[in-house]
Amino acid sequence: MPLKGFKYSIVLTAITAILSDYFSLTIFYFILKLLTTSLIILMPLLYASVKNSLFAKPIIIGLIFCLIGDFSLLFEDYFTIGLISFLIGHIFFIRAFTVVNGWHWPLKIGIPLTFIAGLLLCLTYPNLNSFFIPVLLYIIFIVIMSWQGIFLQLSSSNEAFKSVGYAVSLFMFSDGILALNKFYIHFSLSGLLILSSYWLAIFFLGEAASNDYS
User: Fold this and answer.
1) Is 129 left (phi over 0), alpha (psi -120 to 50) or beta?
2) What is the pTM assigned to this prediction?
3) What is the sign of the dihedral through the CA atoms of 48, 52, 54 and 57?
4) Can you give the residue ranges of every domain in the chain?
5) Measured on CA atoms in the order 179, 182, 184, 189, is the torsion positive or negative?
6) What is the mean pLDDT of residues 87-91?
7) In the predicted model, is pLDDT for residue 48 greater than 80?
């Protein structure tokens, strides 16, 4: 199947999963959620020159940890495991960004990210309780990941990286909505916002790995 057709299949599966969640079709949602992330992982595996790409390999490993996180978050009791899985995924994403571009810390990127993360932590802190340390660590790593990813997009002329900054921003948005919904105030359509922004984020990362032949 051409890459374009494979991308359409991912979009269709994601939309069906979101609709299943909205209409509380639990079994279908569980299956389709894991299938959507699995298809995104398959995209760079099938279409990228993985053997020769220092960027694609850690992206794929990071996406696999996202799949483990997806499975864990399907069950309330496994929330911490899910959090740790995504944190490890972010470490691999950071590796992918920095192996291409090195480490960079421009304040014009870091200050807004740190402000948003700090605000999120302040809002959720009263209800975090035993989750405080895991959530704090997670926030630190997602800020670092976003910082390096946004800089990579802004500084690189490689077409493969043109959406990396959008990906990490959507990841941070998705996780922020999830944290607010769980630890601050529950609101309707949170599932739609979380899933759509999350899948767009990892889709952009998978697409970047698929297009990278470095």
Assistant:
1) left
2) 0.94
3) positive
4) 3-211
5) positive
6) 98
7) no
